[in-house]
Amino acid sequence: MVVMYALMIITVLSAILALIQKDLMKAAILTGFSGGALAVLFQLLLAPDVALTQAIVGAAIVPVFIALAIKKTQREDS
């Protein structure tokens, strides 16, 4: 029970930290961290199908897409 509350707090805190970050790459990493913690929480709540989907989409695909978008839109100083 304590682990579940800790995962809930980690998920919410990492999402809030991702929102207030100035560095966009750190925000992408924190988004993945939030998704991973949520996937573990779903697994502990005995929803393995939802946990697997969250792990793939929320912890892997979304942060990678965010990081790629950041890299593609960075300005080059000449």
Automatic annotation (TrEMBL):
Compartments, record wording: Cell membrane
Q: Which UniProt keywords apply?
A: Cell membrane, Membrane, Transmembrane, Transmembrane helix
- Transmembrane region(s): 6-21, 28-46, 52-70
Q: Might you report a single GO cellular component term? A: plasma membrane
Q: InterPro entries per the record?
A: MrpA_C/MbhD, Nuo/plastoQ_OxRdtase_6_NuoJ
Instruction: Tell me how this protein sits in the membrane.
Output: Multi-pass membrane protein
Record carries keyword Membrane: yes
MrpA C-terminal/MbhD domain residues are 10-75
| Short name of one Pfam family | MbhD
Major site of localization recorded for this protein: membrane
Transmembrane helix keyword on record: yes
Protein name as it appears in the record? MrpA C-terminal/MbhD domain-containing protein
Q: Which organism is it from?
A: Methanobrevibacter woesei
